[in-house]
Amino acid sequence: xxxxxxxxxxxxxxxxxxxxxxxxxxxxxxxxxxxxxxxxxxxxxxxxxxxxxxxxxxxxxxxxxxxxxxxxxxxxxxxxxxxxxxxxxxxxxxxxxxxxxxxxxxxxxxxxxxxxxxxxxxxxxxxxxxxxxxxxxxxxxxxxxxxxxxxxxxxxxxxxxxxxxxxxxxxxxxxxxxxxxxxxxxxxxxxxxxxxxxxxxxxxxxxxxxxxxxxxxxxxxxxxxxxxxxxxxxxxxxxxxxxxxxxxxxxxxxxxxxxxxxxxxxxxxxxxxxxxxxxxxxxxxxxxxxxxxxxxxxxxxxxxxxxxxxxxxxxxxxxxxxxxxxxxxxxxxxxxxxxxxxxxxxxxxxxxxxxxxxxxxxxxx
Length: 365
Description:
Strand content: 15-25%
Largest sheet: 7 strands, mixed
Structural class: alpha+beta
Shape: globular
Helix content: 10-25%
Radius of gyration: 21 Å
Order of helices and strands: HEEHHEEHHHHEEEEEH
Number of strands: 9
Distance between the termini: 23 Å
């Protein structure tokens, strides 16, 4: 993010002062939001000898944490005085709130600035009042690094693995059919069929979803009898990284936040809500000479999911967002407060803060 010395206009300064003086009053509450964080370490790490052409069976999924997150408005007048150029960047550098952000090449050092609480989303502008208004559309918001020869793969093979890793993210979280409840066949086809525990888990998750087999841990899905997608754009921000993993494999890590705008399924109701999902998925593109795998597929190493406004205590296999008009004035969760747009915190830190029983309050939606 640029730190240029551009000056702040009077209009922007007055807007910042008004919001700073307002504090948290009138902040949109998210009592029904759930920040749900689950880690799945799929490889055994017992320390036993590893055999040639072996495959480490996946562990059965364990435990899940829930969040519901509440609103925190930051007013940094002293910081403005010290670094006005950075605040100018927060407000779009004079180019408006929809000025696209540069690609995310590393974890940011702070959360995005809080937008005006008066900027509510509409059917025509579903991302209004959200940092996602400046994010990329679909896969355009996911940064893919330059390929280089790594582990058992050449530069060209690494490039192909990165492309297929992004394809998996798109097929899991952006495909319109999957979002509307269809089976994510393209995504599942990219997962190593020799990972029997993973394949059994996915079969159960789609046949009989529940606490022990939840498809939402890997895939985004909405119940079409309750909500409909607004427009055909899902906003994203995140990045893909890679390194050499076990037995010379290329281990690809993905950390992406997805923002879904939704309206009531019934026509004529124009209220818009947003569900925000941050996922970290780690994939291992294994050397077929050392690991039993299907060519063109990866083995899941781990996956974590953090969801706001997807439904608290929801085990239906579909996200169930709540709309502002349905929320009580005083309702809130008892779990920790989390900003779902904050990508400055690692998923491991989010996981450590997760609570298995309580729902918190989303700071914004």
